[in-house]
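Lab notebook, design round three. We kept the backbone fixed and only want residue identities now. Task for the bench partner: fill in a sequence for the structure below.
Input structure tokens:
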């Protein structure tokens, strides 16, 4: 499958896009990383060099090219969009990708929450479009959640599942639903852990210990929320509560008050825990 793609385009050279391009390059597949910001592209390659083994770096460096011009995707058999999590920005980018890529190219989005059907509405040929939700960091995390929209063809899903396998990842095919499956399950857990903390049922350390040592999770739910970023968690939970009309996903007061006080998790040095 990867061999037949010619080259793979990744639009958005930030945290996720650069890591996705790296995965394809590590398998010897030519990848074009496109971003509207030259700065982002200039930062991407040194970052990837730091996060690629010295043996593999010459291959990755040879296989990844960067461009600020979306027209450079004209020969790509697969294009993955990984720009900001904003439906309007994504729709605009997807339309531009569709206008330049080959008619039989597969198009995917790495959105973590926006409806695949909403994004597909911007396209002329939605049957070749699906979600390809990589986890952060793409090189380390095994899962790719493959999201089937109402118009996505079986052929598109099969091709994405096959490419995912060739990247050494595990595909889970899910229907389009707010939060898909990963975030539906994750935020049910994180929200409940926060509510238990609010009620004083257990300390944060003991809540985290139950999942780490009782269910072998590598991180407890409160540690994980700090790792994701508490502002990001609050936004995702608001979105899911709204779309699913389910108060279970509404951000708990303890989360909102931490965000308001600038405690955003690891990235700010403080969240449920202190990191300095
Ligand atoms: P980021 O902010 O690190 O990178 C986004 C990049 O998109 C930036 O370099 C920006 O310059 C570029 N961009 C914005 N508008 C553009 C346009 N019109 N044309 C070309 N490039 C444009 O964001 P990140 O974290 O990489 O997220 C990207 C996508 O991946 C989002 O949809 C996000 O929800 C999803 N995602 C993020 C995860 C994470 O943990 N960061 C995990 C899984 C999915």
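Proposed sequence:
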């Amino acid at each position: 499958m990867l061999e037949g793609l010619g080259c793979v385009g990744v639009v958005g050279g930030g945290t996720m896009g650069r890591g996705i391009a790296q995965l394809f390059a590590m398998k010897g597949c030519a990848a074009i990383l496109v971003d509207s910001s030259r700065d982002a592209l200039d930062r991407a390659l040194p970052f990837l060099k730091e996060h690629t083994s010295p043996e593999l770096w010459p291959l990755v460096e040879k296989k990844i090219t960067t461009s600020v011009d979306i027209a450079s995707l004209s020969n790509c058999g697969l294009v993955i969009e990984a720009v900001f999590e904003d439906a309007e920005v994504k729709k605009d980018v997807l339309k531009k990708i569709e206008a330049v890529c080959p008619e039989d190219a597969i198009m995917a989005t790495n959105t973590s929450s926006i409806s695949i059907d909403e994004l597909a509405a911007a396209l002329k040929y939605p049957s070749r479009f699906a979600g390809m939700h990589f986890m952060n960091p793409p090189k380390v995390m095994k899962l790719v959640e493959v999201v089937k929209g109402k118009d996505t063809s079986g052929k598109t899903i099969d091709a994405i599942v096959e490419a995912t396998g060739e990247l050494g990842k595990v595909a889970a095919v899910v229907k389009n639903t707010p939060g898909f499956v990963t975030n539906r399950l994750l935020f049910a857990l994180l929200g409940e852990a926060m509510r238990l903390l609010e009620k004083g049922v257990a300390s944060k350390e003991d809540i985290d210990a139950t999942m780490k040592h009782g269910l072998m999770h590598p991180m407890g739910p409160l540690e994980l929320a700090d790792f994701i970023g508490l502002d990001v968690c609050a936004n995702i939970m608001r979105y899911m509560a709204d779309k699913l009309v389910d108060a279970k996903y509404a951000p708990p007061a303890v989360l909102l008050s931490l965000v308001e006080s600038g405690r955003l998790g690891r990235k700010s040095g403080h969240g449920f825990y202190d990191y300095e």
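Keep this in mind before ordering anything: Residues 3-175 form a domain with the Rossmann fold fold (CATH 3.40.50.720).
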